[in-house]
Amino acid sequence: MTGDDPRVPFAAAAAGFTELVAQAGPADWDRPGLGEWDVRALTGHASRALSVVETYLGQPDGNGPVIGSAIDYFLIGVSLQTDPAARRKTDAGIAERGRAAGAALGDDPAAAVADLATRVLALVRQQPGDAMVTLSSGARMRLDDYLPTRTFELAVHGLDLARALGVEMPAAARPAIAASCELAGQIAGQLPQAADVLLWLTGRPGAPGTLSIL
Asked: Which helix (H) or strand (E) holds 63?
C-alpha cells in the first residue's frame, strides 16, 4: 500500500524518473522515445509533470471551478476528447510542448531534471495539502488532489522512458507505480469499458488485447 499521503508516491515518482534520466548517455537523446518524440522530447514532456506543480502553485488563486479529485481530473480530460478534430489539436499541442521542454533541458538534461525535482519536492513539502493549484484552464484543485495526477504522469512516462532506453524501471519508483495502478483502476471503473478492463486484468479469454483509460 502507498498510504494516504500523496507526497510519498510523488516523491518516489520523482526519484525514479531522475534516476532514469541519469542513465541516458549522449547518444541516447536522439533515439526514438514515444510516438513522434525522441528521448529528449519524451524526457521534456515527462519533466513537465514536475515543472507545472511549481508553475500552478505560483498562480493567483482565482474563482474557477474546483476539480475534486484526481479521478475527476482524468475523466474530464476523457470527456473533452470526444471530437476527433479537437483530439488532434490537443495531441499536436502536447507534442510541441514536449519538444520545447526537451530543448529547454539544455546540454545536461540529467542535471536539469535533478535540479527541477529537488526544487519541486522542497516546494511541495512546504505547502499544506489544501493549498490551491490553479491549472492552465483556470480550474482549481487542492494540492493533495493534484499530486496523484503528476505521480501518474511520471510513472507512466517513466516506464516509456525505461523502454526507450532499454533499462529497468528503478526500484525507487515502485510506490509510484503502485499508486498509479490504483488510480488507473479507479478511473477505469467509471468508464463504459470498465467490464473489458476487468476481464483484461484477470486474464480472461477473449479480453480485448489493447485498452486505454485515457
From this structure: none
- CA 187 – CA 213 distance, rounded (Å): 7
Instruction: Record the cell numbers describing residue 44, joined without a space.
Output: 521534456
Q: Taking a C-beta distance cutoff of 8 angstroms, is the pair 174, 2 a contact?
A: no
Written as one letter, the residue type at 106 is G
Q: Are 141 and 66 in contact (CB under 8 A)?
A: yes
Q: Which residues contact 98 (CB under 8 A, 6 or more apart)?
A: 37, 41, 42, 44, 45, 48
Per-residue pLDDT of 69-103, as tens digits, reads 999 999 987 766 667 776 777 778 889 999 999 99
Q: All domains of the chain, ordered by start, with CATH?
A: 7-201 (1.20.120)
d(CA 52, CA 54): 5
Residue with cell 526537451: 102
pTM exceeds 0.70 for this model = yes
